[in-house]
Amino acid sequence: MRILLDEQLPRQLAPYLVGHDVRTVHQESWAGLKNGALLTQAENAGFLVFLTGDQSLEFQQNISKRRLGVVVLCAASNALEDLLPLVPAGLTAIATVRPGQLIRVEPCAAGDRLPAARFASTVQAVA
């Protein structure tokens, strides 16, 4: 699956997304684009998933009208060591996200053994 890795996430995350064709915003020469323009560029280039750490994206963009899915990694920071524990749940979210849908991958709650992928309640999948 073609995945676009947002510019605020470390490029070193890409090799952990096993089985996917991962490109960074920088590799695509799209650094500095605003979110709406970036999502449009990604759609036009055939990306199926936008992977980001921007936890406010769902409030800034109408994801339900998009032709790609968005997965938000909700870590304590965008440092690789904070993101890596979210990768297993992130891979599950990448495999299940649909165009026009946003899935938040959040850290473990107390007592949980694995991070949780949560569907954003304000964004519905487009049928």
List the defining traits of the structure above.
127 residues; alpha/beta; six-stranded mixed β-sheet; 6 strands
What is the gist of this entry?
By secondary structure, the chain is an alpha/beta fold.
- The tally of domains stands at 1
Mean of the pLDDT scores?
Answer: 87
How would you describe the shape? globular
Spans of at least 5 consecutive residues with low confidence: 110-115, 119-127
Per DSSP, the total helix count is 4
Q: Can you give the helix content as a percent range?
A: 10-25%
Characterize the largest beta sheet: strand count, sense, and whether it forms a barrel.
Answer: 6 strands, mixed
**Quantity of strands, as a count:** 6
Structural class: alpha/beta
N-to-C terminal Cα separation, in Å?
Answer: 20 Å
Task: Supply Rg.
Answer: 13 Å
Instruction: Enumerate the strands of the largest sheet in spatial order, edge to edge or round the barrel.
Output: 2-1-3-4-5-6
SSE ordering = EEHEHEHHEE
